[in-house]
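queue> holo job accepted (BES)
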Amino acid sequence: MNYTIETQPIETLKSDVLCVGIYTNQHLTASANALNDATHGLIRSLIERGDILGKLNDTLLLNVVPNSHIERILLVGLGDQQALSVKNYRKALASAITVLKKANIKSAAISLAECDVEKADLTWKIRQIVEVFSDKLYQFTQCKSKVDDTIPLNDIVITTSDNQCNDAKTGLAQGIAIAEGMTLAKHLADLPANICTPSYLAKQALTLALSYDSLEATILDTAEMEKLGMGALLAVARGSRQPPKLITLEYHGDDKNSKPIVLIGKGLTFDAGGISLKPGAGMDEMKYDMCGGAAVLGTLQAAAQLKLPINVIGLVPASENMPDGDANKPSDILTSMSGKTIEILNTDAEGRLILCDTLTYAERFQPDVVIDLATLTGACLVALGRVPSGLLGNDDVLCHDLIAASETACDSVWRLPLWEEYQEQLKSNFADLVNIGGKDAGTITAACFLANFAENFRWAHLDIAGTAWRTGSAKGATGRPVALLTQYLINRAHART
Ligand code: BES
Ligand code: MN
Ligand code: ZN
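queue> job finished
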């Protein structure tokens, strides 16, 4: 998709559809008014006739515009004439693109960045147009032998007044970078587990590094991880015929002495549960257990595209978790890279095992902060559903910064406590720690487990089990939390300059 900014008035543009907003009670946005004049009062007469009321989510597509060079008009309802809430602005954008997607058109011009949105500037409004449109236009077609619902739309023009053009361009660049990062994350996640293996993910990181001078990828294999003593990560991989990989993707946008932000993404390309086998129903969705890793790659791509003046390091431990004669078993005791020993009580609590060694490995980068993201616990779905990601961490400033970024990015998080009382649930009679904390507070005890390996830096954990993909008829990856993380990086870059 090609997104551009245009400073000419919308009624002069040659796009296949001109898309403008209208409010209830016959109030028109400036562009709708101009279009009304250009069409000899057509828009007002339709509203007066009651063909469209202007309520939020109302749309009316005019396929013919008499006595005019204008091909088509899409009216989009914005509700009462007042600043839209952020959520309603995104809803209006979603209803617009839903119509444009179905109409058999190649190009569209959209003026919705002109309407007032609470606490939002032009940069943000333009960014949201690109993000919402790109989200709705995403299709996973790689594995279909025949694609019958291709979308012809390939050109979107966003209109804005001339004096705001620089802000508009910033918004456009951010929107495109975030949207493309999310698309990459969704695509990798939607790939089936027989294609998207640990080796495949590693190859994608190498390919990404080839496309950007500022990105550099390194892959550690089993032998190298053995040398480092990554006993927890390797134990998870033992049950699989697919060799594990530890992917490092470094982005250098600042000088070498500037401490990096480290992002760690769980890259479990299929989680069958191991010897503690998961039930069959819905097990296909465990191909999504690498969404954290995919989001790390998408975020690094966005950082590189935006040339942010910071250093970021992405780490993705990639493995399968399968049952096998050589798989790790409940009662096994592992020695992690940190030296701490772990008693396995359930092999399905594997995410924390591959993450704990990666957290220890992160120390060598002398990180400013470490943020991990993982589809870690089903308990997170029970606690928070599919709306916010769970946030836990050992540093209030970092958690606060992530909450602020999540609000700007419309990629919500909710903080849960990481109190020392919960560590009681992780005590083992035979080792330093057990790998499950019992039935209570599963999201918190999983994070508490990780906290034992994050003692030497400021750290936050995002549990994205409920937010990384949708289930049911709209099954598919969401690309979250790429928008949140990219916003956090943008804010950090901004604070620095
Ligand atoms: N990948 C799963 C978590 C998960 C489950 C994400 C369902 C999304 C939907 C993780 O590896 C897992 O299996 N966790 C167990 C932990 C338990 C054994 C303590 C869980 O949540 O059931
Ligand atoms: Mn599991
Ligand atoms: Zn898992």
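queue> The chain has a mean pLDDT of 98.
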